[in-house]
Amino acid sequence: MRNESRFILAEDNSEPRPRLRTAVVFIMLFAVLGAVVLFAYFSTFERPMTTIILVRHAEKNIEPANPDPDLSPAGQARAQELARMFGDAGIKAIYATQYKRTQQTVKPLAEKLGVPATSIDAKNTAELVKQIRAQHNGDVVFVAGHNNTVPEIIAALGGPQLPIIPETEFDNLYIVTIYRVGKAKVLKMKYGSPMPASGQGMMQ
Questions:
Q1: How far apart are the C-alpha atoms of 166 and 146, rounded to whole Å?
Q2: Torsion angle of the four alpha carbons 186, 191, 196, 200, in this order, in degrees rounded to the nearest 10
Q3: What average pLDDT score do residues 110-135 get?
Q4: Residue 36 reports pLDDT greater than 90
Q5: How confident is the model at residue 83, as a pLDDT?
Q6: Is the pLDDT of residue 202 over 50?
Q7: Segment among 2-11, 122-131, 143-152 with least mean pLDDT
């Protein structure tokens, strides 16, 4: 009887071991799966969602009596430079204000890409930003504005409030990256022929 009791007791002590191993395996499996889910979750939050390339229109003809002048030869050359730089950037949409100088700035790029330029009221930044967020989430978008509207658009997209672009500067280029969370990041660059800095003013 004593031997049988010992045998039964030994069997009883050995039964939980497979269950313990199974529990450990499941715990490790859930830990790995949890780590994968967390990694994917935070990776998604860090991934760039939408990229907006912004420029002020290129150089225009100096015609004091004309409120809507064409681009000058220097401005036309700068517009061609934009087409060269961003012809392979994966741009899905192009926006420009209703003025000739902005429309002509994006024309070479639009023709190269086969993407029509959408005209947007220069005074309606809210509508432009609304369209970008609603229709172009995850896309690359190109926008041509004015020396006072470009900083306004950047701020409306979630970037910092930048100063008005000096009237004589036409070589500034801004790349705004909108992430799923947090503030938008802005990269400022120069392109084409350099311009001297000057004062500030109203929309030009």
A1: 10
A2: -40
A3: 96
A4: no
A5: 98
A6: no
A7: 2-11
CB neighbours of residue 96 within 10 Å: 26
Cβ-count burial 49-85 (b if 16+ within 10 Å, e if not): bbbbbbbbbbbbeeeeeeeebebbebbbebbbbbbee
Other Cβ atoms within 10 Å of 121 Cβ, number: 10
CA 15 from centre of chain: 59
Per-residue pLDDT, 178: 93
Give the separation between CA 133 and CA 60, rounded to whole angstroms: 30
Contact predicate 149/165, CB 8 Å: no
CA dihedral 196, 120, 129, 52 (to 10 degrees): -50
User: Residues 35-63: what's their mean pLDDT?
Assistant: 74
- What pLDDT score was predicted for residue 190? 96
Provide DSSP, 106-146.
HHHHHHHHT-PEEEE-TT-HHHHHHHHHHH-TTSEEEEEE-
71 DSSP assignment? B
Euclidean distance between CA atoms 104 and 71, whole angstroms: 7
**Nearest C-alpha neighbor of 171 from the set 153, 187, 193:** 193
